[in-house]
Amino acid sequence: MAALVRRLGELLARGPNRIALSTAMRGTLSTTVALALLPPLGFAPLTYPAVLGALATSLVDVGGPYRTRLLAMLAQAIGGPLLLLLGGTMVSYGWIAAALMAAIAIACGLIRAFGSGGTSLSVNMPIAFLVGVQIGQMAPARETLWAMGYGSGGLWTILVTLVFWQLRPYRRLEQEVAGAWEAVASLIRESVSVGEQSVVGRHRREQRINAALLAARTAVERAREVVGDLRAGIAGPGTTVAQLMVLLDSAAGIGATAVTIAETAALPDGDLSIRGAEMVDACQAVARKLLDGKGELPLEALRAAAGQARSPAQQAPERPDAPVLGQALRYLEDADQALGMLFGSRRRIPHLIHLPLSHRLPRGTVSDALRAHLTPRSAIFRHATRVGVVTACDTALLVHLRLPHGIWLPLTSLVILQPDYGGTLTRALHRSLGTIVGAVIAGALLATVHGTVAYNVTIGALLFAMLLVIRRNYGYGITFLTPIVILLIGMSSAQPWIDLAERVAYTVVGAALALAAGYLLWPQWERDQLRDRLARAIRANQAYVSAVLQALTPGGEPTDLVALRRQAEMAVANADAGFQRMLAEPGRRVQILPVGFNLLVHLHRISRHATALAALIDGVQSSSAAGPERPPGQLRDLVETVFEDIGRVVSEGRSPVPWPSIAARLAELAAQLTPPNEQMPASRVALLVGYLMNDLTGMLGAAGYYQGGAAAQVRAFAPSS
Question: Which domains does the chain have, with CATH numbers?
Answer without folding.
Answer: 10-166+377-520 (no CATH), 171-345 (1.20.58), 526-717 (1.20.58)
